[in-house]
Amino acid sequence: MKTSDKLLTLELQPWAMAGGSATQTTSLAHLPRVAQACLPLSEGETALCEWQLQSQLRHPDTLKQLWLHLQARLDVTQTCQRCLLPMKIALAVDRHFRFVADEATALAEDDDCDEDLLSPAPELTLQSLLEDELLLAMPLIPRHTTCDTPLPQSPDQDLPHPFAALAGLKLGKP
Ligand SMILES: [Zn+2]
Predict the structure, then answer these.
(1) Is residue 22 part of a domain?
(2) Is 1 inside any structural domain?
């Protein structure tokens, strides 16, 4: 496994133009926006993001198009919003991007295509793209499928909910 963070801050568009392709591992510490959205790592724990970035020049009708394919995996820990205990979440990114001339073109064409559009900019680095995509891959509300330790229930919650009784009546119907 190769770990190098040199590529993180390179401007992506020229790198892709030059036929860039890379498979690497980046520590969560180098993805501060992602790290901020997660619980801090415990002492001695490391979180590594494995990613693969591939550029591709496509020629539909001889119109040259520059594409990027980003795949990434990262295990993070967030707080379950039901039981408030930490939970592991496996983030996975697999997205295709196409470079367009500028931001205006990106806005104009965005609704008509499945791929994501990128406009060249010095601030468009692998780090910004990777962070954006990992953040997007996070659940809106992190929740265990089944919580091990449900929150202690208050006496009120033990009473049947009025709608629960209604649901029972409905089920009784033929
Ligand atoms: Zn939970």
Answers:
(1) yes
(2) no
